[in-house]
Amino acid sequence: MKIKKEEFGKFENTAVYAFTLENDHGVTVTFLDYGCTITKIITPDRNGEPENIVLGYDQLVGYLNNTAFFGCVVGRVAGRIGGAEFTLNGKTYSLAKNENDNHLHGGLKGFDKVIWDAEMKENTDKVSVKFSYMSPDGEEGYPGNLKMNVTYTLNNDNEFTIQYDGISDETTVLNVTNHSYFNLSGDIKRDILDHELTLKSNQYLELQENLLPTGEFAEVDGTPFDFRQGRLIRSGAESEHPQNQLAGGGYDHPFVLSENRNEEIVLRDSDSGRQMIVETDEVGVVIYTSNQLAGDDPIYGVQPRKHLGICLETQGLPDAVHHGNFPSWVLEKDKAFTSVTTFKFGLVE
To answer: Which of 39, 163, 311, 341 is in the most buried spot, having the most CB atoms within 10 Å?
Structure first.
């Protein structure tokens, strides 16, 4: 097990560093202190060939100009807040409108657009980097001085763990996730339409035209949203189901997890033989199949296009501040928040 640190670029005259965690089995994870952004995850295919399985850029400028949130931690609140405002304890808070009339992924300067403090830790069986950031009261309109820690850990069982910890000196709202786009083909050789996703979920949230939840929980039975026995992403991308069409040909939907910490999310690519198991303590996961992905900046030499990656955003349910029937995002004053998601890399049996 080892860990490496090197300069990646400069942001506002401040050096941005890349950290690489490496285990004894050919798995490496590279990420930046800018936005806690994961830039590469290298895993071997069934022939032992190590290749990158996430979308990203070779240079910092790509991330500075990026609107797709490649690999970063998003917050204080991941997802959309309708009307860019919410009421908490009788007070209304106005947030930045950075997606039409909505607030998206923490606003204009969310967790993804700041440099975090970093502390490296090395052990014989695991290596980690603990990132820290103090989000001041009023930043992007949110109440409370919020101290956040995000810890990335890789072990010799090929498990990569993300742990989020937060505490605020005022009651506030918090809903964080990592926004990596996965493509298990390796080095973006193919799109993700023939990736198979298995998901322990009986319900998903219906979306409105603006991609905000209607508030209705829809049953997955008999629909392209039933991943309980495994389903190719292609089946949703090519579906005539109104919800798949509304999302732009695929998925951009929150799913309610029926189990936690029990192989509840499994992504497979039969051609490369790669498999990734995701386990979390979060109530849900947003599945996004990059239906809106476009632009001119090459992604590791590949032109951006639809269905080039899939996001598995473990988190609370979007726009929960406007739906009393959703689990709450409210973080009480001086009460600790902790959330853990683990990605286990391996091969299809």
So the answer is: 39
